[in-house]
Design brief:
Structural class: alpha+beta
Helix content: 10-25%
Strand order of the largest sheet: 1-3-2-6-5-8
Number of helices: 5
Number of domains: 2
Distance between the termini: 21 Å
CATH topology of the largest domain: tt1808, chain A
Number of strands: 14
CATH superfamily of the largest domain: tt1808, chain A
Strand content: 25-35%
CATH class of the largest domain: Alpha Beta
Length: 200
Protein backbone atom coordinates (compact mmCIF):
# COMPACT_ATOMS: atom_id res chain seq x y z
CA UNK A 1 0.00 0.00 0.00
CA UNK A 2 1.06 3.59 -0.57
CA UNK A 3 -0.04 6.77 1.19
CA UNK A 4 -2.46 9.10 -0.56
CA UNK A 5 -0.54 12.15 -1.82
CA UNK A 6 -0.31 15.78 -0.72
CA UNK A 7 -1.95 15.59 2.71
CA UNK A 8 -0.43 14.84 6.10
CA UNK A 9 -3.63 14.28 8.10
CA UNK A 10 -7.10 13.29 6.95
CA UNK A 11 -10.29 13.56 8.95
CA UNK A 12 -12.69 10.63 8.66
CA UNK A 13 -15.10 12.81 6.67
CA UNK A 14 -12.34 13.77 4.23
CA UNK A 15 -11.35 10.13 3.85
CA UNK A 16 -14.86 8.93 2.97
CA UNK A 17 -15.33 11.82 0.53
CA UNK A 18 -11.98 11.06 -1.12
CA UNK A 19 -12.62 7.32 -1.26
CA UNK A 20 -16.01 7.79 -2.88
CA UNK A 21 -14.35 9.54 -5.84
CA UNK A 22 -11.63 6.94 -6.42
CA UNK A 23 -11.70 3.85 -8.62
CA UNK A 24 -9.16 2.17 -6.34
CA UNK A 25 -9.95 1.28 -2.75
CA UNK A 26 -8.18 2.99 0.13
CA UNK A 27 -7.82 2.32 3.84
CA UNK A 28 -7.76 4.81 6.73
CA UNK A 29 -5.38 4.34 9.67
CA UNK A 30 -5.15 7.07 12.32
CA UNK A 31 -5.38 10.02 9.96
CA UNK A 32 -3.47 8.51 7.04
CA UNK A 33 -5.03 7.23 3.83
CA UNK A 34 -3.38 4.28 2.08
CA UNK A 35 -4.16 3.35 -1.52
CA UNK A 36 -4.53 -0.39 -2.10
CA UNK A 37 -2.59 -2.11 -4.85
CA UNK A 38 -4.25 -4.27 -7.48
CA UNK A 39 -4.45 -8.01 -6.89
CA UNK A 40 -2.74 -10.77 -8.88
CA UNK A 41 -4.59 -13.48 -10.79
CA UNK A 42 -3.76 -16.11 -8.16
CA UNK A 43 -4.88 -13.74 -5.41
CA UNK A 44 -8.27 -13.34 -7.09
CA UNK A 45 -8.59 -17.08 -7.63
CA UNK A 46 -7.88 -17.82 -3.96
CA UNK A 47 -10.32 -15.17 -2.75
CA UNK A 48 -13.06 -16.44 -5.05
CA UNK A 49 -12.50 -20.08 -4.16
CA UNK A 50 -12.47 -19.28 -0.44
CA UNK A 51 -15.76 -17.41 -0.78
CA UNK A 52 -17.38 -20.32 -2.63
CA UNK A 53 -16.10 -22.90 -0.15
CA UNK A 54 -17.40 -20.94 2.83
CA UNK A 55 -20.76 -20.08 1.29
CA UNK A 56 -21.41 -23.70 0.35
CA UNK A 57 -20.94 -24.73 3.96
CA UNK A 58 -22.75 -21.80 5.57
CA UNK A 59 -25.78 -22.58 3.39
CA UNK A 60 -29.02 -21.24 4.83
CA UNK A 61 -27.55 -20.23 8.17
CA UNK A 62 -27.91 -16.62 9.27
CA UNK A 63 -24.48 -15.55 8.04
CA UNK A 64 -23.23 -13.31 5.24
CA UNK A 65 -19.82 -13.32 3.56
CA UNK A 66 -18.26 -10.49 1.54
CA UNK A 67 -15.13 -10.22 -0.58
CA UNK A 68 -12.85 -7.25 -1.23
CA UNK A 69 -15.31 -4.34 -1.18
CA UNK A 70 -16.78 -4.43 2.34
CA UNK A 71 -15.00 -1.95 4.59
CA UNK A 72 -14.51 -3.00 8.23
CA UNK A 73 -14.35 -0.61 11.17
CA UNK A 74 -11.51 -1.40 13.56
CA UNK A 75 -11.82 1.65 15.81
CA UNK A 76 -14.65 4.17 15.24
CA UNK A 77 -13.43 7.34 13.50
CA UNK A 78 -9.83 6.07 13.49
CA UNK A 79 -9.32 2.90 11.48
CA UNK A 80 -11.12 1.45 8.42
CA UNK A 81 -9.78 -1.41 6.30
CA UNK A 82 -10.82 -3.72 3.44
CA UNK A 83 -10.20 -7.43 4.21
CA UNK A 84 -10.05 -9.89 1.32
CA UNK A 85 -12.90 -11.90 2.84
CA UNK A 86 -15.08 -11.02 5.82
CA UNK A 87 -18.03 -12.83 7.40
CA UNK A 88 -20.54 -12.11 10.12
CA UNK A 89 -23.43 -14.10 11.56
CA UNK A 90 -26.66 -12.91 13.13
CA UNK A 91 -27.52 -9.23 12.76
CA UNK A 92 -24.98 -7.20 10.85
CA UNK A 93 -24.00 -3.85 12.30
CA UNK A 94 -23.40 -1.24 9.60
CA UNK A 95 -23.06 2.53 9.40
CA UNK A 96 -26.04 4.54 8.15
CA UNK A 97 -24.93 4.28 4.51
CA UNK A 98 -23.99 0.58 4.79
CA UNK A 99 -20.40 1.39 3.82
CA UNK A 100 -18.87 -0.11 6.96
CA UNK A 101 -19.30 -3.44 8.76
CA UNK A 102 -18.78 -3.10 12.52
CA UNK A 103 -19.15 -6.67 13.79
CA UNK A 104 -17.08 -9.07 11.67
CA UNK A 105 -16.85 -12.62 12.97
CA UNK A 106 -14.16 -13.98 10.61
CA UNK A 107 -11.59 -12.13 8.50
CA UNK A 108 -9.41 -13.64 5.77
CA UNK A 109 -6.38 -12.06 4.13
CA UNK A 110 -4.54 -13.56 1.14
CA UNK A 111 -0.85 -12.78 1.65
CA UNK A 112 1.80 -12.07 -0.95
CA UNK A 113 5.54 -11.72 -0.29
CA UNK A 114 5.06 -7.94 -0.11
CA UNK A 115 2.13 -8.04 2.38
CA UNK A 116 2.89 -11.16 4.41
CA UNK A 117 4.71 -9.40 7.25
CA UNK A 118 2.08 -6.64 7.41
CA UNK A 119 -0.81 -9.14 7.41
CA UNK A 120 0.78 -11.27 10.12
CA UNK A 121 1.94 -8.51 12.44
CA UNK A 122 0.64 -4.95 12.06
CA UNK A 123 -2.71 -5.84 10.53
CA UNK A 124 -3.34 -8.64 13.00
CA UNK A 125 -2.68 -6.19 15.84
CA UNK A 126 -5.36 -3.97 14.33
CA UNK A 127 -7.83 -6.82 13.98
CA UNK A 128 -7.35 -7.94 17.58
CA UNK A 129 -9.07 -4.70 18.64
CA UNK A 130 -12.37 -5.78 17.05
CA UNK A 131 -14.42 -7.25 19.89
CA UNK A 132 -16.65 -9.36 17.64
CA UNK A 133 -13.78 -11.00 15.72
CA UNK A 134 -13.33 -14.70 16.52
CA UNK A 135 -11.02 -15.93 13.75
CA UNK A 136 -8.37 -14.47 11.46
CA UNK A 137 -6.91 -16.45 8.55
CA UNK A 138 -3.84 -15.65 6.47
CA UNK A 139 -3.74 -17.64 3.24
CA UNK A 140 -0.44 -17.87 1.38
CA UNK A 141 -0.51 -17.05 -2.31
CA UNK A 142 2.44 -18.91 -3.80
CA UNK A 143 2.55 -22.05 -1.66
CA UNK A 144 -0.39 -23.98 -0.17
CA UNK A 145 -0.59 -22.94 3.46
CA UNK A 146 -2.90 -21.24 5.96
CA UNK A 147 -2.29 -19.59 9.32
CA UNK A 148 -5.32 -19.45 11.62
CA UNK A 149 -5.66 -17.32 14.73
CA UNK A 150 -8.74 -18.04 16.87
CA UNK A 151 -9.80 -16.07 19.92
CA UNK A 152 -9.64 -18.16 23.07
CA UNK A 153 -12.75 -19.06 25.04
CA UNK A 154 -12.20 -16.25 27.51
CA UNK A 155 -11.22 -13.78 24.79
CA UNK A 156 -7.90 -12.74 26.32
CA UNK A 157 -5.56 -14.57 23.94
CA UNK A 158 -5.36 -16.11 20.48
CA UNK A 159 -4.79 -19.76 19.59
CA UNK A 160 -2.51 -20.27 16.59
CA UNK A 161 -2.69 -23.06 14.02
CA UNK A 162 -0.54 -23.48 10.92
CA UNK A 163 -1.32 -25.98 8.15
CA UNK A 164 0.63 -26.62 4.95
CA UNK A 165 0.15 -28.78 1.88
CA UNK A 166 -2.58 -29.06 -0.69
CA UNK A 167 -4.07 -32.09 1.09
CA UNK A 168 -4.46 -30.20 4.39
CA UNK A 169 -7.56 -28.63 5.86
CA UNK A 170 -8.34 -26.04 8.51
CA UNK A 171 -11.42 -25.85 10.72
CA UNK A 172 -13.02 -22.46 11.33
CA UNK A 173 -15.08 -23.05 14.44
CA UNK A 174 -16.69 -19.61 14.45
CA UNK A 175 -18.44 -20.49 11.17
CA UNK A 176 -18.64 -24.24 11.77
CA UNK A 177 -16.79 -24.68 8.47
CA UNK A 178 -13.79 -26.65 7.25
CA UNK A 179 -11.62 -25.23 4.48
CA UNK A 180 -9.94 -27.81 2.27
CA UNK A 181 -6.78 -26.34 0.82
CA UNK A 182 -7.48 -28.27 -2.37
CA UNK A 183 -10.62 -26.13 -2.72
CA UNK A 184 -8.93 -22.88 -1.71
CA UNK A 185 -6.17 -23.32 -4.31
CA UNK A 186 -8.32 -24.59 -7.17
CA UNK A 187 -6.83 -23.44 -10.52
CA UNK A 188 -3.87 -21.76 -8.77
CA UNK A 189 -0.50 -22.18 -10.46
CA UNK A 190 2.41 -22.35 -8.00
CA UNK A 191 5.92 -21.15 -8.73
CA UNK A 192 8.94 -22.53 -6.85
CA UNK A 193 9.55 -20.06 -4.01
CA UNK A 194 10.38 -19.95 -0.33
CA UNK A 195 9.27 -16.36 0.16
CA UNK A 196 5.58 -17.01 0.76
CA UNK A 197 5.46 -19.77 3.36
CA UNK A 198 3.14 -18.93 6.28
CA UNK A 199 4.93 -18.85 9.57
CA UNK A 200 8.13 -17.47 8.05
Amino acid sequence: MTSAPQKKYWTVEEYFAFDAEQEERSEYIDGEVFMMAGASLNHNRIVGSTLIALMQQVGERDCEIFVADMRVEVIPNRQYVFPDVVAYCGKGEFDDQERVLRNPLVIVEVASPSTQRYDKHAKFLLYQRIASLQAYLIIAQKTPGVELYERSEHGHSWIYQHVQGIASQVEIRALNCTLLLSDVYRNVTFEPSSDDVPGA
